[in-house]
Design a protein that fits this description.
Distance between the termini: 169 Å
Radius of gyration: 40 Å
Oligomer: single chain
Strand order of the largest sheet: 3-4-5-6
Number of helices: 5
Length: about 240
Amino acid sequence: MKKPIFKQFIEWIFSAVFIGVYFVLLFNAFPIVILITIYVLSYEPKKTRKNSQKARRKYNKYPKKSYQGYKSPKRSKGENQMYEIVKNKFPSELVLRNERPSWLKNEKGNNLELDVYFPNLKLAFEYHGRQHKEYTSFFHSSFNDFERQRSNDEIKLRKCKLRGITLIIIWFDDPLSKSFINKKINEKYISKKNVTSHKENNVIELKIETPTNMSETTTNLPCITCGFSKCNLEYHFGA
């Protein structure tokens, strides 16, 4: 038995309204759901937000630089602490960070980096983390990568020495204190500089005190023939 036409018409109307409402809700509610999701995911508690902003401001105090295509790595907390101490030790001196001098190249011809460099003082500092002493998979892609890093560290020391530059290395397990770093500076740099200066002064004094020609001493030498300090011809027997 067929349904009455009127009843079928009512069902069609309800179906059309339901489908229409469904699509309206789908297209209108979807952006709202997306906005709510974005808000929930991006929301940070006030305290966390403050800490993040503080950390960003602190990090931006030490802007990274690029040199001939090489990007400076992210600076560690230890390196930043070391920088602050040595910068305050020599406040009026020019200081360079993550400098790659043209004379400091490895075997492949790549410029190596000095963490902190005082070019006018001929003084440099390196902060070495654990990865400079032992192999760690977090920092090294392979053991060869670790060996290459050790080789680069040795090249830095050797080339700095050839240039007369004192390279002071602060290790990850060293106390990052003003007193410790100042002690290292006194031992490796200031005392060495004083010894060199003392030796140079001694050489100058020796040059001043030592006669440089015989004109200074010929008036005091005795005559070979008569034996007198002043030549006396009367005693030149058979001369």
